[in-house]
Design brief:
Radius of gyration: 19 Å
Helix content: 25-40%
CATH architecture of the largest domain: 3-Layer(aba) Sandwich
Bound molecules: pantoate
Distance between the termini: 37 Å
Strand content: 15-25%
CATH class of the largest domain: Alpha Beta
Shape: globular
Order of helices and strands: EHEHEHEHHHEHEHHEEE
CATH superfamily of the largest domain: HUPs
């Protein structure tokens, strides 16, 4: 039977117990409003050999800047719990804000370097909020494999860096983006899109698809690949934050002829900001 807990001590004890019985713990950190992408992470944990799959649901206020969508971020706990039960998740940890950040909390975990560009540039402080909460989740889980979606490519690399730099006993695993049949990357924020905006949002998948095809056909120039994405996104979106070809390891932008890279995009349609990416030569056609 699936357990649900709201207190850190209970969560830690359950993970400890699972390890004590010889089990391997798979952790899936989320902010809820679960979709097939999140569920694919829980499935991957099980497939990789986790005996105990723990999924956390916490809309982390530290990673939202004033004016962002913290208040309207979808909260669908009952449906999330049903989906987890159906999938055979062992434990859901859904703490309240005070359970994660009790009175007097004043610590920040910050990764430098890899956090500065792209999302870091457009959402200052965002990654500090992410690494602070993920460090706490890792500390409370203990030794585990932790699963992150590659839609948040930079986040995945940052969390991996943090675990390595702080010698945390966590293997960070990045899993492929899950898309709708028409190419739209799954995101809890897709719920904000009107049907017209959803149609326009497909510009990203079209752009990434043409970059994918060009890469397969031998195009290696960073500008040419980015331009293919821009061509589809510019007419459909209200504003582009960035379209960049970056190193998959450092997330630094790369120029000229390249032999590896990840194409990353962030753009606004109506009031919704969407991000997506394509790891060239690795990801399947969007
Ligand atoms: O990707 C997310 O849903 C969040 O950034 C995470 C990793 C759960 C931290 O709040």
């Amino acid at each position: 039977m699936m357990e649900v807990c709201h207190e850190r001590a209970e969560f830690s004890a359950a993970c400890e117990r699972a390890r004590g019985e010889g089990g391997r713990v798979g952790l899936v950190p989320t902010m809820g409003a679960l979709h097939a992408g999140h569920l694919s992470l829980a499935r991957a944990a099980r497939r990789d050999g986790a005996d105990f799959v723990a999924l956390t649901i916490f809309v982390n206020p530290l990673q939202f800047a004033p004016g962002e969508d913290l208040d309207r971020y979808p909260r669908t706990l009952e449906a999330d719990l049903d989906a987890c039960r159906e999938l055979g998740v062992d434990l859901v940890f859904a703490p309240a804000r005070d359970a994660m950040y009790p009175a007097g909390f004043q610590t920040e975990v910050r990764v430098t370097g890899i956090t500065r560009q792209l999302e870091g540039e457009h959402r200052p402080g965002h990654f500090d909020g992410v690494t602070t909460v993920v460090a706490k989740l890792f500390a409370n889980t203990g030794r585990c494999h932790a699963y992150f979606g590659r839609k948040d490519f930079q986040q995945w690399r940052i969390v991996e860096r943090m675990a390595r730099d702080l010698d945390l006993p966590v293997d960070v695993v990045g899993m492929p983006i899950v898309r709708e049949a028409d190419g739209l990357a799954l995101s809890s924020r897709n719920r904000y899109l009107s049907s017209d905006e959803r149609e326009r949002a497909l510009g990203i998948a079209r752009g990434l698809r043409s970059a994918h095809d060009a890469w397969q056909a031998g195009t290696r120039h960073a500008d040419a690949l980015s331009k293919l994405v821009r061509q589809e996104v510019e007419p459909a979106f209200d504003r582009i934050d960035y379209v960049a070809l970056a190193s998959p390891d450092t997330l630094e932008r790369v120029d000229g002829e390249v032999n590896e890279g990840v194409l990353l995009i962030a753009a606004h349609v109506g009031k919704t900001r969407l991000i997506d990416n394509l790891w060239l030569g690795v990801d399947t056609r969007p």
